[in-house]
Amino acid sequence: MDRPQTYDFAIMSVTLPESVDAWRMVSARRSFKGALPIAAMRRLSEALAGTEGEARFELDFGRDEFDNAYLDVRVEAPLAVICQRSLEPFVLPVNVDTRLGLIRFEREEAALPPGSEPLLIAEDGKLALADVIEDELLLALPLIPVNPDSTLPDDVVPPSPEEDSVEGRSDNPFAILRELKK
Fold first, then answer.
1. Over the Cα atoms of the chain, what is R_g?
2. Measured distance CA(122)–CA(57) in Å, rounded
3. Whole-angstrom distance, CA of residue 34 vs CA of residue 42
4. Smallest Cα–Cα separation from 93: which of 45, 42, 148, 164?
5. 123: phi > 0 → left, psi -120 to 50 → alpha, else beta; which?
6. pLDDT, tens digit (0-9, with 9 covering 90-100), for 122-147
7. Regarding beta strands 6-8 and 69-82, do their DSSP bridges make them parallel or antiparallel, or are they unpaired?
8. Among residues 157, 178, 158, which one has the least CA distance to residue 167?
9. Of 32, 66, 78, 101, which cross-links 112 as Cys (Cβ 3.0–4.6 Å)?
10. Beta pairing partners, 58
11. What is the pTM of this model?
């Protein structure tokens, strides 16, 4: 089996191509490997608390045993987000490992194997690789980021069961009803 041709942009210090012909990349079984600054991803940057760091990626084009074209996407990135529990920024390590099934028409989606996400390719075959990386990172962001090391502030912590019990309260709202029942 032929090894795919790999371009390591971190070693070659070459920028990621703005766009590639997806079908040529599949035919040639091309691979790309490198790093993309988080600050260069405009849409992702808007969802973050900071844009320091870079996303390390590996992109592999190919065909599976059923001749379906695919793009394997692996991305690791430290993303600065706001913890929704403590409202403090923290770095969330995000790892993406997904297979995108490349399709020309929406009707081809049904033929994709389970576990493949469809990626509709433009009529001209052009695919912006940086946009694919950014899209996958956006999809990997949690809706409600929570730092696992955070705790609720003291003024937000709910009372303990002893403090919350009805008998333990001196200002029981039903005390008046109890008096009326007598």
1. 26
2. 23
3. 19
4. 148
5. alpha
6. 999 999 999 999 999 999 999 999 99
7. unpaired
8. 178
9. 101
10. 33, 74
11. 0.76
Tell me how far apart the alpha carbons of residues 5 and 25 are, in angstroms, rounded to a whole number. Answer: 10
Residue 133 and residue 75 in contact, taking contact as beta carbons nearer than 8 Å: yes
Place of tokens 């793009």: 71
Mean pLDDT of the chain: 86
Strand partners, 54: 37
Q: Are strands 20-21 and 31-37 parallel, antiparallel or unpaired?
A: unpaired
Token couple for 104: 């020309």
153 or 51, higher pLDDT: 51
How far apart (Å, rounded) are the C-alpha atoms in residues 172 and 176? 8
Helix (H) or strand (E) holding 98: strand 89-103
- CA gap 147, 64 in Å, rounded: 38
Helix, strand and coil percent figures for the chain, each rounded to 5: 25, 30, 40
Residue 92: what residue type? L
Q: Residue for token digits 């075959």?
A: 125
